[in-house]
Specification:
Length: 260
């Protein structure tokens, strides 16, 4: 397979997600292509090159205002449009602590650096730095950009919230919310249910799954609460941690649409 086909096939797997986390103990918003994880590391793309933009007037969380956000989005688009997809793959960006960084894996660092230099020259109002390192194993992608299990839960939460919003849900109105978890043994499930009960979760079902899985013993919980992002993240992270304490996995949640 040629290098060009190698990169193009990876590009066909685009699947972008965004989530909030911490990087170096600072709040961070990460936009990442999780689709490329299916083929990463791409053997032809062994060099990591990234552009770092320092933006002024960051808020108390280290994030940009709307004007700077729009300007940096324009820089991002111009760079991506100019890059030859046969030699580079854009994999994600990190916004944190007054900086936004764009990360690319490439087989031709010099060509990518030329594109970055052009972007730097076209945007003199920003302090822009260009960095490069060898990263054949895509360590930065896996260790910094790629979501952790908790991050994936946050991403899932936002997907469900968006669907509820599209149906006109108020989000902030308390309602009964279903939660689900799976365990390797019935004893683990039982202990989890007792612990969840002490946190005001009602156990409403305990089905055993017929399929051969590592976690065949399921439990359904019910608790009344809002489903706005702050609340649902707090609730699901709480259950995620609790399930792990009993060797299980938190599976997710669901709610009927509540409009008022």
């Amino acid at each position: 397979m040629s290098e060009s086909n190698d990169v193009q096939n990876a590009a066909d797997d685009d699947h972008w997600e965004i989530y909030v986390t911490y990087v170096d103990e600072q709040p961070a918003v990460i936009l990442v292509d999780i689709g490329v994880s299916n083929v990463a590391p791409i053997p032809s793309l062994t060099n990591l090159v990234w552009l770092s933009i320092a933006f002024p007037d960051a808020d108390d969380q280290g994030f940009p205002d709307e004007n700077h956000d729009d300007a940096m989005n324009g820089i991002e688009d111009s760079i991506t449009d100019d890059i030859d997809p046969s030699i580079a793959r854009y994999v994600g960006r990190v916004t944190s602590d007054g900086h936004r960084e764009f990360f690319y894996y490439t087989s031709d660092p010099a060509s990518l650096t030329d594109t970055f230099d052009a972007a730097k020259a076209a945007n003199p109002t920003y302090e822009i730095e260009i960095h490069e390192s060898d990263d054949a194993d895509w360590t930065h992608y896996w260790n910094v950009l790629y979501p952790s299990p908790e991050d994936f839960q946050q991403i899932h939460n936002e997907h469900v919230i968006r669907k509820l919003e599209q149906e006109g849900d108020s989000l902030v109105t308390p309602r009964p919310v279903d939660h689900f978890a799976n365990f390797p043994t019935p004893e683990d499930r039982a202990e989890f249910s007792v612990a969840a009960g002490a946190m005001d979760y009602e156990t409403v079902s305990q089905p055993d799954r017929d399929d051969e899985t590592e976690f065949p013993y399921s439990v359904g919980l019910l608790k009344t609460h809002p489903v706005d992002s702050e609340t649902i993240d707090q609730v699901t992270f709480e259950l995620f941690e609790l399930a792990s304490q009993y060797n299980g996995q938190y599976e997710g949640w669901g709610s009927k649409v509540v409009k008022s």
